[in-house]
Design brief:
- This protein has helices spanning 47-54, 77-87, 103-111, 118-131, 147-159, 177-194, and strands at residues 4-14, 20-31, 36-40, 62-67, 70-71, 88-91, 165-169, 197-202, 213-218, 221-223.
- The chain has 224 residues and is an alpha/beta fold.
- It has one domain (4-223): 3-Layer(aba) Sandwich (Rossmann fold), CATH 3.40.50.300.
- Strands 6-7-8-3-9-10 form a 6-stranded mixed beta sheet, sandwiched between helices.
- The structure holds adenosine-5'-triphosphate (ATP) and magnesium ion.
C-alpha cells in the first residue's frame, strides 16, 4: 500500500489584506509504502506546506490526501489530531525538543498522547535510544547533547508511535556537512529497517543521494 497519495492538492493562504498566496497548485504525488522521497526546491516553493498537508497539520484548500489508505481530505480538527498520533511522525529543522525534559522523556512525552503508558512507553523510548546510539544519553537534557545527538532524539521521537509516514523538514540544515550525512545515513537505515516511508525536505542536492527518488518543487508546482 502506498504511504501517501496526493491528488490535485491546492493550498491558498489568504493574507490579512485579502490577497491570496497560492502555495501549492495541482500537487499530485505518490510515495510508496517504504519509499524515501527527497523534496527539493527553493525557499518559499511550498515544501513545508506540502509536508504539513500530508501530515494533517494543515488543511488543503482542495484536492485529495490519502495516507496509508486513509482518506483524510475531509477530516475535521479532532480527526486530524487522532490521525497524526496514529500515522505520521515529524522531524523539523528546529529540532523542538522540550528543554527541561531528558532525551528519554522527550520520546515518552509523545506517547502520552498515544497508546502506551508509563513503563511500556519507557521501554519503547529506551529501545529507540539504543538503536539510535543514544543509550548512554537517555538522562541528558537537550542542552547536554550535541546538535547531531539532538537531531537523533528528534528522529526517535518521530518513530515512537510506529508511523506509516515520517516527514523530515530540512533535518540536516542546522548541521555541518559531515554530521548532516551521518544523520541522513541514520534516517535511511532506520526507515529501511522498519519499512517506513519518508519525505525529506532539503535544499541540499547532496542529501538526495540518501533518498530513493527526488521530486522538485517550484512556486508550488511539482515536477518529477
Ligand atoms: N501562514 C501563511 N500565510 C500566508 N502565506 C504563507 C503562510 N505560510 C507560508 N506562506 C507562503 O506560502 C509559500 C510557501 O511557503 P512554504 O513555507 O511552504 O515554503 P518552503 O518551500 O517550505 O520554504 P523554505 O525553504 O524557506 O522553508 C511562500 O510564498 C510563503 O510565503
Ligand atoms: Mg519550509
Amino acid at each position: 500500500m502506498n504511504a501517501l497519495e496526493l491528488t490535485d492538492v491546492r493550498k491558498v493562504y489568504t493574507m490579512g489584506d485579502g490577497s491570496d498566496v497560492v502555495a501549492l497548485d495541482h500537487a499530485t504525488l505518490t510515495v510508496g509504502g517504504d519509499e524515501i522521497v527527497a523534496l527539493v526546491g527553493p525557499s518559499g516553493s511550498g515544501k513545508t506546506t506540502l509536508c504539513s498537508i500530508a501530515g494533517g497539520i494543515l488543511k488543503a484548500t482542495a484536492g485529495r490526501i490519502v495516507v496509508a489508505g486513509e482518506d483524510i481530505s475531509g477530516y475535521g480538527d479532532r480527526e486530524l489530531t487522532r490521525f497524526r498520533q496514529r500515522m505520521v511522525g515529524f522531524v523539523f529543522q528546529s529540532v523542538n525538543l522540550v528543554p527541561f525534559l531528558t532525551a528519554r522523556e522527550n520520546l515518552m512525552v509523545v506517547d502520552e498522547l498515544g497508546q502506551r503508558r508509563g513503563k511500556l512507553a519507557q521501554q519503547r523510548a529506551d529501545e529507540l535510544l539504543e538503536e539510535l546510539g543514544l543509550a548512554d544519553r537517555a538522562k541528558n537534557l537537550p542542552a547536554q547533547l550535541s546538535g547531531g545527538q539532538r537531531q537523533r532524539v528528534a528522529v526517535g521521537r518521530a518513530l515512537m508511535n510506529d508511523p506509516r509516514l515520517v516527514l523530515f523538514d530540512e533535518p540536516t540544515s542546522a548541521l555541518d556537512t559531515k554530521l548532516g550525512e551521518q544523520v541522513m545515513e541514520l534516517i535511511r537505515t532506520e526507515m529501511k529497517r522498519r519499512g517506513t516511508a519518508a519525505i525529506v525536505v532539503t535544499h541540499d542536492e547532496r542529501i538526495t543521494q540518501f533518498c530513493d527518488r527526488s521530486v522538485h518543487i517550484t512556486d508550488g508546482v511539482l515536477a518529477g
